[in-house]
Design goal:
homodimer; alpha/beta; Ribosomal Protein L25, Chain P; Alpha/beta knot; 8-stranded parallel sheet; 7 helices
Chain lengths: 241, 241
């Protein structure tokens, strides 16, 4: 079953945009009377029937709605410093969407080599991954955000906040635990996880995170690339839920 | 610290092959007297000193050996049906090596669309991922193997055998459990995991697996691509160990 995406369907729109219309009518050769399935990116799946197979603006009637389509039982916000090779970050966005993530924030920190980030390609990859993996909700991609700003933003007491760090934190007055143990102890279903750049977070950033109630975590002994570490954290939350 | 790879160093060889020599002398400009680090792919890291900076056959003296360099606490054999797009399988090989895997077998099953597999590129990717992630052991890549043959091969009682399947197995007289529960119950540190093609395993293949003592497992509710499912299984074993 092929899914189409219309951000505005929940707002009453009953047409596919130019690109989706073209794919629906020109590529998949759907015609008037055909049933198609449309996600709104907010979690809903709409069963629709085409009433005008216009290849530039396909018009449909909504027959039924399924809420929470392909949803997961947790909320996860991944904040990740994009590596130099942006393909690796795009790959993370695709895989995290398939597995189950709600928000993604690219980070820029003290040791970041990449200080600019253009989200257009990532957004397209995320939408197509959500359609491919049959999820009604499309993860929200935020703009490039400073590590300190992300650390300071409030998530509320019902969100467990984890920051991955390779070095010891005892000297900074903190403790580091394996993400497996952190998830066992969490007792919540909302998570924010920060993954630093290749040079990791700075000691100042970790100190600030400790001040703001972030739990320093480890992902085990393997030396993982940024995007692999980030997806491992997503898998840990997904598998534990 | 950059690692070099010499499969023969454990056999007494004290030269890098042409490609590694070129990288060592031409690219990294190492010279006589420089210390370099060489892995043998079997788990050992050798600290060596260059005695002849020949760009085609760099000669070195071994100063010390570290065993079990970058090793993990489990043994994992991943048998995965490569998808049509071979890049996705190569990506799995890279990420699984980083995370921690010991053997990889490409599978061909009843519903496989890909029935040929050339391993050369994958082997190069695995070696470079092992070097990049600082592992002395290079995972072994086997040739394309039939699902039935892989199911029938004996792994011994100390190995937990898991086969991922999307459909129900009650009709086949089996039970399906989440990989998280399977790992909790395993009581062993050796694992073999089978991931099928896009069309999944056939009912005959699952029936055969049940006959041969494989536990049918689920990776959760998300609709994962082959390579994402395979890496999620690797992450589950890695995170639980």
């Amino acid at each position: 079953m092929e899914l189409f995406y219309s951000r505005d369907i929940a707002l009453g729109s009953s047409t596919l945009d130019r690109q989706e219309s073209n794919h629906c009518v020109k590529v998949l050769r759907h015609r008037c009377g055909d049933t198609i399935h449309v996600i709104d990116g907010c979690g809903n799946l709409y069963e629709c029937v085409i009433v005008d197979d216009n290849p530039n603006a396909t018009l449909y009637d909504i027959k039924s709605v399924t809420e929470g389509y392909g949803s997961h039982s947790y909320w996860l916000h991944m904040a990740v410093a994009p590596p130099k090779n942006i393909d690796r970050f795009e790959w993370f966005c695709e895989k995290a969407t398939e597995t189950g993530v709600d928000e993604i924030t690219p980070l820029v920190g003290d040791y970041s080599e990449r200080k600019v980030f253009k989200g257009e390609r990532c957004e397209r990859i995320i939408v197509s991954a959500a359609k491919q993996s049959h999820k009604g909700a499309v993860p929200q991609l935020h703009g490039l955000t400073g590590v300190a700003d992300f650390i300071k933003q409030g998530f509320g007491p019902d969100t467990a906040k984890y920051i991955c760090y390779c070095d010891d934190v005892e000297a900074l007055g903190g403790t580091k635990i394996h993400i497996r143990e952190a998830l066992k102890q969490a007792g919540v279903s909302r998570f924010a996880v920060m993954i630093g750049p290749e040079g990791d977070f700075s000691r100042n950033e970790i100190a600030l995170a400790l001040e703001h109630g972030w739990q320093v975590i480890s992902l085990g002994d393997s030396r993982l690339r940024i995007e692999t570490a980030a997806l491992t954290a997503v898998a840990a939350v997904y598998l534990a839920s």
